[in-house]
Amino acid sequence: QTLSVQEIAELRQIYGNIDFDDDDNRVNEVFTTGVLDRFDRILNEEEAFKLLTNRYQDSKDEVRYVECFKKIFEWTGKSDVIVRNDLYNDNIRTYKKEMTQEQYRYLLLIKQSIKGEFIQTNDIKVLVFLFKLALQTYTTPDFFFPSINSVILGNYDMSLPVFCKSEDTIRKLETIVNQSGLYIRNIETKIQF
Q1: Residue 186 · residue 34 · CB < 8 Å
Q2: What is the pLDDT of residues 101-152, one digit of tens each?
Q3: How far is CA 77 from CA 147, 170, 185, in A?
Protein backbone atom coordinates (compact mmCIF):
# COMPACT_ATOMS: atom_id res chain seq x y z
CA GLN A 1 0.00 0.00 0.00
CA THR A 2 1.17 3.51 -0.76
CA LEU A 3 1.43 5.86 2.24
CA SER A 4 -0.90 8.82 2.48
CA VAL A 5 0.34 12.38 2.96
CA GLN A 6 -0.65 12.11 6.65
CA GLU A 7 1.30 8.86 7.09
CA ILE A 8 4.37 10.41 5.44
CA ALA A 9 4.08 13.39 7.80
CA GLU A 10 3.93 11.00 10.78
CA LEU A 11 6.98 9.15 9.46
CA ARG A 12 8.89 12.43 9.19
CA GLN A 13 7.82 13.32 12.73
CA ILE A 14 9.24 10.05 14.07
CA TYR A 15 12.45 10.02 12.03
CA GLY A 16 13.01 13.72 11.44
CA ASN A 17 14.67 14.65 8.19
CA ILE A 18 14.49 11.46 6.15
CA ASP A 19 17.04 12.70 3.62
CA PHE A 20 20.16 11.48 5.41
CA ASP A 21 22.38 13.01 2.72
CA ASP A 22 21.40 16.50 3.89
CA ASP A 23 24.35 18.32 5.48
CA ASP A 24 22.05 20.21 7.84
CA ASN A 25 20.79 16.93 9.28
CA ARG A 26 21.40 16.39 12.98
CA VAL A 27 21.19 12.61 12.67
CA ASN A 28 23.64 11.79 15.49
CA GLU A 29 21.42 13.62 17.95
CA VAL A 30 18.52 11.30 17.17
CA PHE A 31 19.99 7.96 16.12
CA THR A 32 22.59 5.40 17.03
CA THR A 33 24.26 4.72 13.71
CA GLY A 34 26.34 2.03 12.06
CA VAL A 35 27.00 0.45 8.68
CA LEU A 36 25.73 -3.00 7.72
CA ASP A 37 28.63 -4.41 5.75
CA ARG A 38 30.38 -7.57 4.65
CA PHE A 39 33.66 -6.20 6.02
CA ASP A 40 34.37 -5.33 9.63
CA ARG A 41 36.23 -2.15 8.68
CA ILE A 42 36.55 0.43 5.93
CA LEU A 43 38.73 -0.97 3.15
CA ASN A 44 41.81 0.80 1.89
CA GLU A 45 41.94 1.70 -1.80
CA GLU A 46 43.79 -1.45 -2.91
CA GLU A 47 41.48 -3.75 -0.94
CA ALA A 48 38.42 -1.95 -2.27
CA PHE A 49 39.61 -2.33 -5.86
CA LYS A 50 40.19 -6.06 -5.39
CA LEU A 51 37.18 -6.91 -3.28
CA LEU A 52 34.47 -4.56 -4.51
CA THR A 53 34.78 -5.35 -8.21
CA ASN A 54 34.23 -9.11 -7.94
CA ARG A 55 30.72 -9.88 -9.29
CA TYR A 56 31.01 -13.55 -8.26
CA GLN A 57 31.75 -12.54 -4.66
CA ASP A 58 28.93 -10.01 -4.77
CA SER A 59 26.44 -12.71 -5.74
CA LYS A 60 27.68 -14.96 -2.91
CA ASP A 61 27.48 -12.11 -0.42
CA GLU A 62 24.00 -11.19 -1.63
CA VAL A 63 22.73 -14.50 -0.25
CA ARG A 64 24.05 -13.57 3.23
CA TYR A 65 22.51 -10.11 3.04
CA VAL A 66 19.11 -11.49 2.04
CA GLU A 67 19.19 -14.06 4.86
CA CYS A 68 20.15 -11.29 7.26
CA PHE A 69 17.28 -9.11 6.02
CA LYS A 70 14.85 -12.00 6.51
CA LYS A 71 16.12 -12.54 10.08
CA ILE A 72 15.65 -8.85 10.87
CA PHE A 73 12.13 -9.04 9.44
CA GLU A 74 11.41 -12.13 11.57
CA TRP A 75 12.75 -10.36 14.66
CA THR A 76 10.30 -7.49 14.09
CA GLY A 77 7.46 -9.99 14.25
CA LYS A 78 6.95 -9.68 10.50
CA SER A 79 5.63 -6.16 11.08
CA ASP A 80 5.03 -3.77 8.22
CA VAL A 81 8.11 -2.25 6.65
CA ILE A 82 7.91 1.14 4.97
CA VAL A 83 10.05 1.41 1.86
CA ARG A 84 11.02 4.74 0.41
CA ASN A 85 11.61 3.78 -3.19
CA ASP A 86 12.54 5.47 -6.41
CA LEU A 87 10.65 3.04 -8.64
CA TYR A 88 7.43 5.05 -8.78
CA ASN A 89 8.99 7.62 -11.11
CA ASP A 90 11.82 5.53 -12.53
CA ASN A 91 12.02 4.41 -16.14
CA ILE A 92 12.45 0.70 -15.50
CA ARG A 93 12.89 -0.23 -19.16
CA THR A 94 16.60 0.37 -18.68
CA TYR A 95 16.69 -2.65 -16.33
CA LYS A 96 15.27 -5.06 -18.91
CA LYS A 97 18.64 -5.91 -20.48
CA GLU A 98 20.25 -6.68 -17.13
CA MET A 99 17.48 -8.70 -15.47
CA THR A 100 16.11 -12.13 -16.11
CA GLN A 101 12.70 -12.16 -17.74
CA GLU A 102 11.14 -13.37 -14.48
CA GLN A 103 12.76 -10.54 -12.48
CA TYR A 104 11.66 -7.95 -14.99
CA ARG A 105 8.07 -9.20 -15.04
CA TYR A 106 7.95 -9.10 -11.24
CA LEU A 107 9.38 -5.58 -11.31
CA LEU A 108 6.64 -4.51 -13.73
CA LEU A 109 4.02 -6.03 -11.43
CA ILE A 110 5.40 -4.16 -8.41
CA LYS A 111 5.75 -0.94 -10.37
CA GLN A 112 2.04 -1.06 -11.29
CA SER A 113 1.09 -1.13 -7.59
CA ILE A 114 3.44 1.68 -6.52
CA LYS A 115 1.61 4.99 -6.50
CA GLY A 116 4.09 7.11 -4.54
CA GLU A 117 7.50 7.40 -2.98
CA PHE A 118 6.60 5.40 0.14
CA ILE A 119 5.01 1.96 0.26
CA GLN A 120 4.15 -0.13 3.30
CA THR A 121 4.12 -3.92 3.24
CA ASN A 122 4.82 -7.03 5.23
CA ASP A 123 5.04 -9.20 2.12
CA ILE A 124 8.48 -10.75 2.47
CA LYS A 125 8.63 -11.63 -1.22
CA VAL A 126 8.19 -7.96 -2.19
CA LEU A 127 10.61 -6.80 0.50
CA VAL A 128 13.31 -9.27 -0.52
CA PHE A 129 12.88 -8.35 -4.18
CA LEU A 130 13.28 -4.63 -3.39
CA PHE A 131 16.23 -5.41 -1.12
CA LYS A 132 17.92 -7.40 -3.88
CA LEU A 133 17.36 -4.52 -6.31
CA ALA A 134 19.19 -2.32 -3.82
CA LEU A 135 22.06 -4.77 -3.42
CA GLN A 136 22.39 -5.01 -7.19
CA THR A 137 22.35 -1.18 -7.36
CA TYR A 138 19.26 -0.91 -9.55
CA THR A 139 17.60 1.31 -6.93
CA THR A 140 18.48 2.88 -3.60
CA PRO A 141 15.46 2.34 -1.37
CA ASP A 142 15.36 3.02 2.35
CA PHE A 143 13.75 0.42 4.61
CA PHE A 144 11.95 1.78 7.68
CA PHE A 145 11.18 -0.71 10.45
CA PRO A 146 8.69 1.21 12.63
CA SER A 147 8.30 -1.63 15.12
CA ILE A 148 11.98 -1.26 16.10
CA ASN A 149 12.38 2.45 15.22
CA SER A 150 15.14 1.74 12.72
CA VAL A 151 16.06 2.50 9.13
CA ILE A 152 18.39 0.69 6.73
CA LEU A 153 19.40 2.87 3.80
CA GLY A 154 20.03 1.73 0.24
CA ASN A 155 23.24 0.24 -1.04
CA TYR A 156 26.65 1.84 -1.28
CA ASP A 157 28.96 -1.01 -2.48
CA MET A 158 26.98 -3.36 -0.22
CA SER A 159 27.51 -1.01 2.72
CA LEU A 160 24.12 -0.06 4.10
CA PRO A 161 23.88 2.71 6.71
CA VAL A 162 21.74 1.74 9.71
CA PHE A 163 19.96 4.23 11.98
CA CYS A 164 18.29 3.12 15.23
CA LYS A 165 16.51 5.18 17.86
CA SER A 166 18.10 3.08 20.63
CA GLU A 167 21.50 1.59 21.22
CA ASP A 168 19.87 -1.64 22.43
CA THR A 169 18.25 -2.05 19.02
CA ILE A 170 21.47 -1.61 17.07
CA ARG A 171 23.20 -4.07 19.41
CA LYS A 172 20.45 -6.65 18.78
CA LEU A 173 20.72 -5.98 15.05
CA GLU A 174 24.47 -6.45 15.33
CA THR A 175 23.90 -9.91 16.84
CA ILE A 176 21.52 -10.87 14.02
CA VAL A 177 23.89 -9.46 11.40
CA ASN A 178 26.89 -11.31 12.86
CA GLN A 179 24.93 -14.58 12.78
CA SER A 180 24.60 -14.04 9.04
CA GLY A 181 28.36 -13.59 8.61
CA LEU A 182 28.08 -9.81 8.21
CA TYR A 183 28.96 -6.84 10.41
CA ILE A 184 27.66 -3.56 11.69
CA ARG A 185 30.77 -1.44 11.73
CA ASN A 186 31.44 2.09 12.97
CA ILE A 187 28.68 2.09 15.58
CA GLU A 188 28.22 5.58 17.01
CA THR A 189 25.79 6.17 19.81
CA LYS A 190 23.56 9.20 19.72
CA ILE A 191 24.64 12.36 21.47
CA GLN A 192 23.30 12.54 25.01
CA PHE A 193 21.94 15.89 26.21
Answers
A1: yes
A2: 998 899 888 888 887 888 899 999 999 999 998 898 888 889 999 999 999 9
A3: 8, 17, 25
Residues in the chain, overall count? 193
Residue 41 near residue 185 (C-beta atoms within 8 A): yes
Residues whose CB falls within 8 Å of the CB of residue 147, separated by 6 or more in sequence, listed in order: 76, 77, 79, 80
Dihedral Cα 35, 118, 114, 129, nearest 10 deg: 20
131-140 burial, b at 16+ Cβ within 10 Å, e below that, comes to bbbbbbebbe
pTM of the model as a whole: 0.86
Q: What pLDDT digit, counting tens, does each position of 25-75 carry?
A: 455 567 888 999 999 998 888 888 888 777 778 889 999 999 999 999 999
Indicate the Cα dihedral angle 55, 68, 106, 100, nearest 10°.
20
